[in-house]
Amino acid sequence: MNNGAYFRKLREYIIKVADIVYMKVLDDPYVFEEVNHTFQLLVLRKTPNSGRYVFRRGNILIFSEKAEELRRLFNNSVTLRELGYRVETGRVVWNQHKDKLTNNPSEGVLMIWSRNIRDGKLVLGGDRPQYIRWSGKIDRGPAIVVTRITGHPKRLKLEAALIPPGTVFVAENHVNVVYPPPNATLEEMEEIVRQLNDPRTWELLSHVTGNTQISKTELENLVPLTITRTRETYPLQFTSIKDIKTRSSNTLENILPMKNNS
């Protein structure tokens, strides 16, 4: 209800015909029997809308208990979209391609699972195949990968990591992929990763989203970032791989093929 596209027309109708005199996102996800969901309580009065609890940014309209605070914060911030970044949900629905999963890097493309994104780094390996025999469209770093599942809005947490330049990969659909504009620098992308992993960003997002996951639209348009660009831009260069860990005994070159012409 806060900001989901499904309820967009309902939110527009509410502010057209009523004022929100009280709003509360309930902590208890079990208000209704056998239903685990996030609930929002609204008290409406059929008078002209005062703008209380209403936050707008571009074409986005949401309800938030901290709408006034969000307005102040966004006045001094930019969004990924405003910086020229594009966000897409990972293209692989893994359980529709079980027969294509493999642990052999020579047989497939690196696949990023949400569990690979930990503490600002890529942590490869684990109990799921890390590669997929993929004939569809692939991605190539640099890019930023962000977990979609954030938990209860009151205890929201994002995890983000940088995909090094030249790394060929696909992401599973519980991961959002952030694609940079041509003028982005690695330093800027690393700073975005740092801010996405900052608990202060999570706190702000908890007043924006009413869901247990963050959509590509929310990530692109509703995450306030403090990024300053100079007039001079630099080409994206190969980054250090110091922020990539592996639990596998394979060499890093095998795990992260930096070049792939297929």
How would you describe this structure to a colleague?
By secondary structure, the chain is of the alpha+beta class. The chain has two domains: 5-65, no CATH class; 80-255, DNA methylase specificity domains (Adenine-n6-DNA-methyltransferase TaqI, Chain A, domain 2, Alpha-Beta Complex), CATH 3.90.220.20. The chain is 20% helix and 24% strand. The protein has helices at residues 8-17, 67-75, 80-83, 186-196, 199-206, 216-221, 252-255, and strands at residues 19-25, 40-45, 54-57, 60-63, 86-89, 101-102, 109-112, 117-118, 121-124, 131-132, 139-140, 143-147, 160-163, 168-171, 175-179, 244-246. It has a five-stranded mixed β-sheet, with no helix packed on it. A four-stranded antiparallel β-sheet has the order 5-15-12-13. The protein has a three-stranded mixed β-sheet with strand order 8-9-16, with no helix packed on it. A hairpin with a 2-residue loop joins β8 (117-118) and β9 (121-124). It is globular and about 65 Å long.
Topology summary:
Layout: H1 8-17, E1 19-25, E2 40-45, E3 54-57, E4 60-63, H2 67-75, H3 80-83, E5 86-89, E6 101-102, E7 109-112, E8 117-118, E9 121-124, E10 131-132, E11 139-140, E12 143-147, E13 160-163, E14 168-171, E15 175-179, H4 186-196, H5 199-206, H6 216-221, E16 244-246, H7 252-255
Parallel strand pairs: 7-14, 9-16
Antiparallel strand pairs: 1-2, 3-4, 5-15, 6-10, 7-10, 8-9, 11-14, 12-13, 12-15
